[in-house]
Every structure is written in structure tokens, then in C-alpha cells.
User: Fold Signal recognition particle protein from Terriglobus roseus.
Amino acid sequence: MFENLQEKLQRTFKNLRGQGTITDENISEALREIRLALLESDVNLTVVKATIDHIREKAIGTQVATALSPTEQIIKIVHDELVEILGKDTAKFKFSSQPPSVILMAGLQGSGKTTTAGKLAAWLKKGGHRPMLVSVDVYRPAAREQLAIVAKSVGAQIYIGKTGDDEAGTPLVERLAKEALREARNFGNDVLIVDTAGRLGIDTALMDEMSKLKALLNPSEILFVADAMTGQDAVNSADAFHKQLGITGVVLTKMDGDARGGAALSIRNVTGAPVKFLGTGEKPDAFEPFHPDRIVSRIMG
Ligand code: GDP
Assistant:
């Protein structure tokens, strides 16, 4: 079994009790443990460095209270620091004042975009909304078919539309997006969730397409879907998508796996965009609004 961060710190601080104050010397081993734990949890190096500096600043000079163990004090400092980075409260989901609100799903292939689109529809339905789904992935018929299955399983409406060739002046992707928006308006759907084509990596064609969709649909949310298991890669692609599109939130999927979730911290720190939801399984209801506190507890073990 791995020793979790709390246990490691307990061990490190065993001899500290009753020593008076926390000093640069007696905290260095603890900081080393915290640094390792954060790196093992996929928190990126820049974030780790800044966090460690902050923790050192806050901790040094702290009186080691006789009643409270120094470990508990340090753990509280680390905990508060990580929650601070993640943003204290659960970020709100944004709707536009003029329905339908458009939610643009962004992310790499395999990140869980289509599954998440369905989960989001189910979550919105529970909240009394009438979401419509559309896939503008014109490159992979299987992806559109998958969204249709997902839509059926959660009982959400879907716009299928006709595919075919690009027409003069209007690429197929844009035509589908426009038609779906019109359809949502006509049917009184207050939210349109747009599942987009993913690629294996970032490429300019994908980014151009996403930018065009953004301009066309004026989405209230651009949600970047990231696979928590991919750690540092998720952070890099979030950064690339954010630079091009200005993402408004992040969904971290596959949190039912053994990823500690440090990617949440790094993505938040690198993009400034809050993590809004976690995916915790393959089923439509394995989805929850993000609470910074829970991830921090998970990172700290
Ligand atoms: P897309 O290519 O980004 O649209 O990804 P998919 O939605 O097709 O998901 C890729 C795979 O990841 C599928 O097998 C999904 O069932 C699975 N998946 C998606 N979200 C989660 C999650 O939160 N937990 C787990 N365990 N699997 C997930």
C-alpha cells in the first residue's frame, strides 16, 4: 500500500512536537514530501513550485501549538492553499439570456466528449431544462451514431440532419450547426449541446473549425473535456484549446480511475478556467458538479 501524504507528513513531523516553531530546517523534509505527492498526482511543476513557496511562507514561524500536532497545522495550510488554487466555490454553469444557450464541447478524441455531452443533457434535464444534442463530427459517422445512442439512453432530443458534401460557401459542419440551432429554437429547447469532432492531437484544421463554430453559435459555455488519466498531456491540450478558443470550463473525465486529479489544479492554474464537472464512470449518471474540497482531499490521500 502507498503511504498517503497525511501519513508521510505524520512520520516527518514525529519529532517536531513541542519544538516551538516551524523553521526552514525542520519543515524542509515535509515540503519535500508535499512536493513529491503533488508531482505524483499530476500537478505540473510550475504549480508545484508556487504552491511549495506559498506553503513555506505561511508555515515558517508558525508556533507549534502543544495541543494541535504540527502535522495537522501543515496539512491545513496545504489544504487551504490547494483549495485556493482551485477556486473556493463550485463554479456556476452559464446560460445565455437569449435561449437556446449553446454549449460547445471541445477536446481530443477519446477524452470522453460524446459521453459527457450525454451526461450533461441528463444533468440539465434533471434541472428542468430541455436540452437538444447535435454532433457536428462530419468525419466519423460512428461518432454521430454514438451520440444518437447516448441521446436515446438519456431521453434527450437530438438533431441528426443530413450529411453529404460541403456546399459552396458553407462547410457541412457550419450548416449542421446552424440547422440545429434553428431546430432547437423551433422546438423550444432552451439548451443546445454541440458535440464536435475530436482529433488525436491538436491541429490547425481542428482549431479553425472550433473557432468558426464559436463565432457562429456564440456559446455560453465552451467546455473542454479532459481525460484525467492523461495527466500532463491534458494540461497541455487544455492550454492549446484555451489560447485558441477561450474555454469557459473544464470537465475532467475518468475520475473513477486511479488518477489523483492533480490535472485539475494544473489546468485551472494554466488556463484560469474552472473545472465545472467530473466524470466518474461510463454511465450517464456518473457525473457530478466539481467541488474543490473533494479533489484536494483526494490529492492529499
Ligand atoms: P470522445 O471521443 O471524446 O467522444 O470520447 P467518448 O465519449 O467516446 O469516450 C471514450 C471512452 O471513454 C468510452 O469508452 C467512454 O465510455 C469512456 N468514458 C468517458 N467518460 C468516462 C468516465 O468518466 N469514466 C470512465 N471510466 N470511462 C469514461
